[in-house]
Design goal:
The protein is an alpha/beta fold. It folds into two domains: about 5-95 and about 300-315, NAD(P)-binding Rossmann-like Domain (Rossmann fold, 3-Layer(aba) Sandwich), CATH 3.40.50; about 100-290, NAD(P)-binding Rossmann-like Domain (Rossmann fold), CATH 3.40.50. About 35% of the residues lie in helices and about 20% in strands. The radius of gyration is 22 Å and the shape is globular. It binds nicotinamide-adenine-dinucleotide.
Length: about 325
């Protein structure tokens, strides 16, 4: 019987599918240092991970029983894909499954930030009536999203899912992307009607200068996509949301831009240093924080579980 280790969990629907197809599913969470030993001892054939487990060269070389590595999600930066594939190991992911959930998290940060929810949640428990009144006064400058311009950097699956939600809210959407020069977006409503929007890419600088809010949706890369220079190009008083990867946004430059009031807020789901984001990020009252939960919805996890399981069955059976 083939054994699959789901080191960071797997939705019940995925487990059921695998078991029905004759696989044994091991749900132990094994610490990074013990991973190679555990895989060897239990003769694991398929290793399923999310973003925390590092499947590096050492693990791959030390585990001859491994035939497949599966990433529940999009980014493969925690897996040495090239090395795995050079040894004939299948490497799979679930690129489509989490787009809607990540896009909704963008709006959770955005709606929250423009009405000061993170700051309000931190401050309201502190004192009594006069405090309540002074907070009410300081949060009087909230704004609506409708009619504002959302600039999207990286117009792939999640960038486009975010754009559709923004358009449905009555926002103007502009974007930049290295490859997607033109995009046709169909927005479907609950009653079956749909509306089509066609958008054309702009230069990064043009997007940054025009946007009231900027949302980042590019994959991990060597350099910052948004560093000090790019933050300075952003419209004064605007906000930035990063749900893609920590290393693409310069956090030191971000804190500076928030502290000198060039930017009004940031919403972060991902950090340069995970799982221990810098204290300057954690304690900044203008930053809305979530702990890398973009894909952590019941629906996305069900889709991820089913998609991973089906690919495992197709490849290993
Ligand atoms: P995708 O590959 O569909 O889209 C990425 C787009 O970015 C591509 O169109 C590409 O051409 C463009 N791009 C790359 N580098 C660029 C640059 N420097 N400037 C402009 N455009 C650039 O990817 P996706 O599925 O939309 O995922 C986007 C990001 O979201 C990934 O980094 C992924 O890891 C991350 N993600 C995060 C979570 C979370 O939990 N927060 C969950 C899923 C995905």
């Amino acid at each position: 019987m083939k054994v699959i280790l789901a080191n960071e969990g797997l939705a019940n629907e995925g487990i059921a599918l695998l078991e029905k197809a004759g696989f044994e599913v091991n749900l132990t969470h094994v610490a990074q240092e013990q991973l190679a030993n555990f895989i060897n001892k239990n003769e694991i054939n398929g290793l399923l991970v999310r973003s925390a487990t590092k499947v590096n060269k050492e693990i791959i070389d030390a585990c001859p029983s491994l035939k497949l590595i599966g990433r529940g999600g999009v980014g493969m930066d925690n897996i040495d894909v090239k090395h795995a594939e050079s040894k004939g190991i299948h490497v799979i992911n679930t690129p489509e499954a989490s787009s809607e959930s990540v896009a909704e998290l963008v709006f959770a940060h955005l709606f929250g930030a423009v009405r000061f929810l993170p700051d309000s949640n931190r401050n309201m428990p502190l004192e009594g009536e006069s405090h309540f009144k002074s907070l009410k006064k300081s949060y009087a400058g909230g704004v609506e999203l409708r009619g504002k311009t959302l600039g999207i950097v990286g117009f792939g699956r999640i960038g486009q899912a975010t754009a559709k939600m923004a358009l449905a809210l009555g926002m103007r959407v502009i974007y930049t992307d290295h490859h997607v020069t033109k995009a046709s977006l169909d927005i479907s409503f609950f009653d079956g009607q749909s509306v089509n929007f066609t958008l054309e890419a702009q230069e990064l600088e043009s997007v940054l200068k025009q946007s009231d809010f900027v949302s980042l949706h590019v994959p991990a890369q060597e350099d910052y996509v948004i560093g000090k220079k790019e933050l300075e190009m952003m419209k004064p008083g605007s906000g930035i949301i990063n749900t893609s990867r920590g290393g693409i946004l310069d956090e030191v430059a971000l804190v500076e831009a928030l502290d000198n009031d060039h930017l009004a807020f940031a919403g972060l789901d991902v950090y340069e240093s995970e799982p221990h984001p810098e204290i300057q990020i954690l304690m900044n009252p203008k930053i809305s924080l979530t702990p890398h939960i973009g894909a952590s919805t019941i629906e996305a996890q069900q889709r991820i579980g089913m998609e991973l399981a089906q690919q495992v069955i197709n490849l290993l059976n």
